[in-house]
Amino acid sequence: MINHHLWRIVRRSLSMAHIFKGFVRRSTIILILLLAACAPPRSLPTGPTPIPTLIPATEPASPLGAATAPAFTIQSYPARLPSAMLGQAIYQTHCADCHGVDGNGVVPGARNFGDLDYMRGETPASFYAAVTEGRGDMPSFRDRLTSDERWDVVFYVWRFSTNAETLALGLQIYESNCAACHGQDGIGTVLGAADFTDLRLVDSRAPRDFYLTVTQGKGSMPAWQGRLSQGERWAVIDYLRTFSYDPILAEEVALTQPTASAGEVACDPVYLSQNNPFAWDDAEVVAAGQVTYDQACTMCHGADGAGALPGTPDLTTTDTQSALRAKSGEFLCVVAEGSNAMPGWKETLSIEQMWQVLTFIASLEQ
C-alpha cells in the first residue's frame, strides 16, 4: 500500500517537471521575439539594387557605362521606283573617288562591287544602311542625300554585279518559265506567289536566298536545278530584282537610240513609201496584231509596250504614237529590217502581219 502511494507521488512530480520544462522553452522563444522587435531597423540601400549579371564568371563584366545602345537604320522606302540612272550621277559625285568609276574600289577597304561572290551575299537593305549610317572610314550620307537619292545610288551600285545581256537572258527565262505564276509584272498571279515589286519584301533578300529557292523549289513552286543551268538561274534572279527598281543606265539608252539618218539609209524605199493599209482603229486587225506581238515582241517591248529591256523605247508615249501615224513607213522599215539590237522580221512575218502589229501598237496609246 505504501509503495503504491509512493509511486503516485513520483509520477506527479515527473509530470510537474515536464510542464515546467515546456513553460521555460516557450518563455525563452517569446523573449527572443520581443527583443528582436525592439531592435533598430536596418538601413535601406543607398541606390537601386543591381540585377545579377548573366555574364559567366570566367568573363570580366563590362565597366559601368561602357555599353552603348545598338545602332539601327529606319528604312524609308521611296514613293517612286528607284532609278539606277539617277543613282549613277550621285555615285560619280560622292562615291567614285573611293569605290572607283567601275566600282572595283581604289582605296584600301573599299568594296569591289564587281565581286559576284560578295554581291550575291548582300542585300539592298544592307547597302542602304551603309550609305545612311556610314561604315568604317566611309562617312554617313544621311544629311547629304535624301532617302530616295540613297535608294537610287544603292541600285546603281547593284548594277555593277550584272549587265544588259544578263538581264535580257533573265527576261527570256522569266517569260518562259515564271510569268505564268508570278505575272508579267512580277506582282504574282497565284496564291502564295511572291510580289517582286514590293521593295519591303525583296530588299532584305540576298541573291543567294533567291538562288536557293529557285534551285530547290519552295511550296508549290518546283525545283529548277535540273531545268536551268547555274548561269540561267543567276540571270533570272538578276532580272526579277528589276521589278523593284529601274535598271536602265544612260549609256545603254544612248546605244539603243536609233538615228533618222541611219534608219533611212538601212531601209528599202519599198517600206518607206508605204502607209498603213488598215484603219488604225480596226478591231479585227488590232486583235490579229496582238497575237503576233505577244509571240514576237513582248519579250523585249513588254506586254504593255512600255519596254521590258534596258534601252527599249516606250511605244506608248504621245510622241511615239504621233510619229507612228505620221511616218508609218519608217516604223514598217524598223520592223522589217531591224534596228540596233532589234532583229529584222521580214524573213518571218509578211507585210500584212507587220502592219497588223503596228496597228496593235497604235492601240497602246497612254
Helices and strands, in order, run as HHHHHHHHHHHHHHHHHHH
Number of strands: 0
What is the CATH superfamily label of the largest domain? Cytochrome c-like domain
The residue-averaged pLDDT reads 80
CATH architecture of the largest domain, please?
Orthogonal Bundle
**What fraction strand?**
under 5%
Q: Number of helical runs? A: 19
Task: Quote the CATH topology of the largest domain.
Answer: Cytochrome Bc1 Complex, Chain D, domain 2
Supply the number of structural domains: 3
- Per CATH, the class of the largest domain reads Mainly Alpha
Instruction: Determine the structural class based on helices, strands and strand pairing.
Output: mainly alpha
**Which value, in Å, is the CA radius of gyration?**
40 Å
Intertermini distance: 135 Å
Low-confidence stretches: 51-71, 254-265
Shape: elongated
Q: Describe the sheet with the most strands.
A: none
Question: What percentage of residues falls in helices of 4 or more residues?
Answer: 40-55%
Structure in words:
By secondary structure, this protein is mostly helical. The protein folds into three domains: 78 residues, Cytochrome c-like domain (Cytochrome Bc1 Complex, Chain D, domain 2, Orthogonal Bundle), CATH 1.10.760; 78 residues, Cytochrome c-like domain (Cytochrome Bc1 Complex, Chain D, domain 2, Orthogonal Bundle); 106 residues, Cytochrome c-like domain (Cytochrome Bc1 Complex, Chain D, domain 2), CATH 1.10.760. The chain has 19 helices and no strands. It is elongated and about 145 Å long.
